[in-house]
Amino acid sequence: MHGKGIVALVGLLLAATVLAGTSENVLPDGTIPGEVAREYITPPESAFADTDVTYVDITGGTSNNAWPWATSFGNSMRFQMMYLPSEIGRAGLITEFGFMSGNQYQREFYNVTIKMVHTNITAVTTDLNSNYGGNTPDTVFFATSKLVGSGVAGNWDLFTLDNGFMYNGTDNLLVEIVWNGAGSGTSITSRYMSMTPVRRTWVWDWQGNVGVSADASRYNARLGFTDELDDVGVSHIVVPEAIADTGATVTPACSVYNYGTTTVSYDVRTSIGADYNETATVTDHAPGERLFVTFPDWTPAALGSFNVTCSTELTDDADNDNDAETGTVFVRKLDVGVQSLQIPSGMYMPGENITPTATWRNHGNTAVDFEAWVILNDPTDAEAYREKVDVTGLDPGGSMQVGFPSFQLNVPGAWTVRCSTGLAGDVDPANDVLDEGFTVGAVDAGIVAILSPGTFVDTGATVVPSARIRNNSDYAMSFDAWFIISDESDAELYRHSAAVAGLAGGETRDVAWAESWPGPHPEGPYTARCSLAVSDENPANNQLERAFTVGARPPWDEGWVEVAPIPAQAGNRRDMPHRGAWLAIGPDPGGATAIYATKGNKLQN
């Protein structure tokens, strides 16, 4: 049987289950991907110490070779050697392995790994991975530092294996030695002979897959078999892990390993604190096999740290030191909620910038990282704003005020704001969300009239532009007002702004611009335009324009303007008024107000 690849039929107790492990690639450092590190399944060195070992010696070689313990071509190596079932002559649990020393030297090697695997290949090739024959090797030994060499030529340099390998007696046995790094010293040699088929390959790279060569060198080897040993143990507590969430459903589990040489059945027990104590029955657990054991579900309720113990209960177990594994589990409560909203709240003006701000509180018993969210919906219920802030390390019982990027409110009406919490495993969704409302008021500012310039401007006049502006809403407003004067070609002759600050709701204000428009001005038609730099409900009244005329006038007093020239009558001269001219206001024949004028100088009309 292949060590870790066995699938066993396992009994059930109290709804507990036991599953066989799966074979996976084994890395040179002894770690199985997706499973626990090799050191978790390593029994104590004394596991096989008190048992009888039967040795099988494969000998005949008298030549010496430094592979695999030489550094002539590199400081790491991957080496393979194959032995035939006819040379081994039996099945059983291999607990010791070694080569025969060819010299008396010893030397320190680092990161030493020995793996064994059943293979059906007939000859070793330089494709080291293919030499496994499609099987997965077992890591049977690993040491970060190992003194290699027996110290006496002709003696066995034996390794006591961490994990026994259950050899089936029918397949070829491939032994792989990997090391990475070595201390200074003389190369260690081993005895060998040439014997078909091709047995050996190597590469000067502990991670290499293609060998330098492959040949028929067969090394003298000693295999120690341990018989009739009952020894099982817990290699690793798998579940619960270091942390469990309150209220969650947890299925306790552990990994058990048969370190012995016999197939056995036994109970496994797991306890968690004082409130959980359950067993599962493992049946027909084969030697060298690791099994995954699960127990009835556990629902953590109490908070805090609790001791966890998983242990095997095999009668007459040969080594009780590896029967149990212990650990601790911290039962945590994950609960972060929105405590209060600071901004936005109440009433805002259109165009106002806000910095959304809210406070979150950690109601749990452990520091947490979480996502804080703020979402704003406008009066049409369309999402106008969505921002997230990552909060780290909020302590239990602590509160934190979180600020978000600023946002400009432009749409008047009733808005909604939602603050929410993003925390996986949060046990109280009810406090994760806070919904509130606020209002953006409607505003309207407008130009009532352009006060200056009037409809006529003297060519030499200095004009101080002014306009009458009104706030038609209920909220105070501040904005800029602009005034532009252009000629009949639309060329701008004047452009300036005036700040309108704190215009109260319902207030009308006459605004004069600080910059005047000095004369002289060419005669002709002009246009005056006034506009407001504001976003409000009624853009139509935010600008106003009117035409005016610049002309030369007689030297009459300030304030007099020409309404119309005195009309000529038939038979009279069309000249200017003379001495004795006068004006009078009175009704015309139809009763409307009229201006009556005479030209004087004895002119009759």
Description:
By secondary structure, the chain is mainly β. It has five domains: 107 residues, Immunoglobulin-like; 175 residues, Jelly Rolls (Sandwich), CATH 2.60.120; 105 residues, Immunoglobulins (Immunoglobulin-like, Sandwich), CATH 2.60.40; 107 residues, Immunoglobulins (Immunoglobulin-like, Sandwich), CATH 2.60.40; 39 residues, no CATH class. 1% of the residues lie in helices and 50% in strands. It is built from one helix and 42 strands. The strands form eleven sheets. A six-stranded antiparallel β-sheet has the order 7-6-9-4-11-12. Strands 16-22-21-18-19 form a five-stranded mixed β-sheet, with no helix packed on it. Strands 24-32-31-27-28 form a five-stranded mixed β-sheet, with no helix packed on it. The radius of gyration is 50 Å and the shape is elongated. The protein starts with 16 loop residues before the first strand and ends in a 7-residue tail after the last strand.
Radius of gyration: 50 Å
According to DSSP, the number of beta strands is: 42
Q: Give the domain tally.
A: 5
User: What is the number of helical segments per DSSP (H or I, 4+ residues)?
Assistant: 1
End-to-end C-alpha gap? 141 Å
Task: Report the CATH architecture of the largest domain.
Answer: Sandwich
- Output the strand order for the largest sheet: 7-6-9-4-11-12
Please report which band the strand proportion falls in: under 5%, 5-15%, 15-25%, 25-35%, 35-45% or over 45%: over 45%
Please give the share of residues in helix. Answer: under 10%
CATH class type of the largest domain:
Mainly Beta
Query: Averaging pLDDT over every residue, what do you get?
Result: 87
Q: Enumerate the spans where pLDDT stays under 50 for 5 or more consecutive residues.
A: 1-47
Helix vs. strand class: mainly beta
CATH topology of the largest domain: Jelly Rolls
Apparent shape: elongated
Report on the biggest sheet: 6 strands, antiparallel
